[in-house]
Amino acid sequence: MMKRLILAFLLVSFFAVPVHAFENGSFEFGTATGDFDTIDAGSNFIAPWIIDSGDIDVIRDLWTAADGNQSIDLNGGEAATIRQTIPTNAGCTYRITFSMSGNSPAGSGTSRTLDLYMNGLNVASFSTTLSVYDTSPGNWEEKTFEFPHSSPGHTMTIIEFMSTTSGPSGPAIDNVRLEELSCPPPASIPTMNEWGMIVFMALAGLIAVYYMRKQTTV
Q1: pLDDT (mean) for 87-92
Q2: Would the N or C end of the chain have less CB density within 10 A of its end CB?
Q3: Please, are residues 84 and 23 in contact by the beta-carbon 8 Å criterion?
Q4: Mean pLDDT of all residues in the chain?
Q5: Which CATH number among 3.60.15.10, 3.10.310.50, 2.60.40.420, 2.60.120.260 corresponds to the domain 21-182?
Q6: Residue 151 has what pLDDT?
């Protein structure tokens, strides 16, 4: 019994709960056929992303992705909202980074816009005048947003991308990722002498209980 208690204590002390980045951040899970596939709200085609409203185009051959083989247009036939829930740790600071361009067949110069939501709150707006149809390497640009996580405990954060562009050609996004920038220093780990004292006191307590029970049964 004592060995199990010590093992459990050591596991809790030395192993922190991991923080996971976005899954399917480059939208490679769910392969589009041909140039693109239009995916409606409720589909699990880009899981674990959830399409809350509207529809999106998962682009494969229509233009070159920023990362991997696929990207998405947040406007299929209309503006869409997608979201993903990720674990985050209280007190830590994070950075969301993603690649953004515009489905602008006429070329660069036309603005495409989207909003970033966190746990239902609009925290940032982004725009671009680039076009995915440009052949130069600079037809995608990186957008970033940093945020502190102040909620107590280990909680889940809902991240949403909402197109604010009307019509069938909207903002294109790809390569969505999360970076943990800083966290509070971990609680101090007991020294070897302190561990020895903890184990000694625990064993002494168990021995005392054992002899007390033995005496009551005599």
Answers
A1: 88
A2: C
A3: yes
A4: 84
A5: 2.60.120.260
A6: 66
